[in-house]
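Loading example: each entry is read as two labelled lines plus one structure line.
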Amino acid sequence: MVIRSLENEKVKHYKKLSQKKYRDLWDEFLIEGERFVKEAFKEGVLKEVIVEEDMDVSFSVPIVRVSHDILKKISQVETPQKIIGLCKKRKETTIGSRILILDNLQNPLNVGTIIRSAVAFDIDTIVMGEDTVDLYNPKVLRGTGGMLFHIPIVFFDIKLLLPMLKDLNIPLFATSVSNGYDVKELTKEEKSRFALLVGNEGNGVKNEFLEQSDKNLYIKMNEKVESLNVAVATSILLYEMRDKSD
Amino acid sequence: MVIRSLENEKVKHYKKLSQKKYRDLWDEFLIEGERFVKEAFKEGVLKEVIVEEDMDVSFSVPIVRVSHDILKKISQVETPQKIIGLCKKRKETTIGSRILILDNLQNPLNVGTIIRSAVAFDIDTIVMGEDTVDLYNPKVLRGTGGMLFHIPIVFFDIKLLLPMLKDLNIPLFATSVSNGYDVKELTKEEKSRFALLVGNEGNGVKNEFLEQSDKNLYIKMNEKVESLNVAVATSILLYEMRDKSD
């Protein structure tokens, strides 16, 4: 059966997932394009596949066939794909020892880019603070380059987390544009066990958090430049803190 | 006098500058926000200042006062500023010896971010290939964080440029995700004189250019990740290639 009506209950359900409140309510999100859908399947989070009527696919989950027009309506990206996956959110509850904390980041492309770099440079946990942009925003998903499923992502209140890190003996590093500690000077030990906290695009890390950090890291650069793009700065820090083969 | 009409010739002129063809025809572009307008003034490229009627400004260039509504219509950004600068494009014709070449980059945020990183890591010339997104696109300008005026930017056909670099004895480095040369292995001499060529977000550097490069650089990372965001990858390469105090 091919669904051709916008009034179909399934179609209504998928369309609602463009809104964060429904993604939160149902713990579901959509992911677009064959590559990402395959990744979701491998990771065991794929619940259903929505495809254009004549598309040839085989997944061992229910397959929902819709017309070209309906698929376009469900799609949340500018260049719609022929295949969309309905995924369940995975709830991570454990925390590793090479942690990246994102506080109040607002640009979805920055967040996606940072997640991709975090996988590249062997971060083992990402903590998303409550006021950071929704992880399941389609622009974030695209920015990750399919890496979303390769790293545990935890949602937690940063205010509560910071004292817990102290208890767990995990040093907290924050970023600051001045009065910092050159990331190149970190020891092998410091690179092996840490939580790195990065903050908002315009305002940086909140003062109340900066005060709790063990070290504020900076990147040496030409003094004409006040700050780098936050995704670039975070990626360079993670690149330096990758402790393999140094 | 305060301009309150959309039919005013000046207003029509400013509004046309949202289109690349008029920016190209008149060699002009708009820049928004006090900080950027001041930078433009310092660099001698500011021709006129457009401000909301009651705004207090002093620049030794003509000041055009417009109503709040007109300013909003001229503005090309989502959160309009109270001050906009009309700038003339600067034509750079000389080329340095720490060169970054951008070929067919399409995302304006990536291009702006890369320009910012290039200033941070002491690149002395950026070459924009013909099919890269327009430098004077408001999203590019915003992404540079005001750094546009701090680096010479040259527009040139990359096909013609590459043989010229050989003549000038400037080694060409390109980026490739596999079969590359770890950027960490570059010598001090190699970092002091080079042209780094980066390519399109999806497709990377064109094969015809890759073949002409002296070295293809890569960044060591977890093998799960196929590639980094292009602005991140370029910034890490430039960070490594900054030869000061290494």
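Chain B has two domains: 2-88, 98-241.
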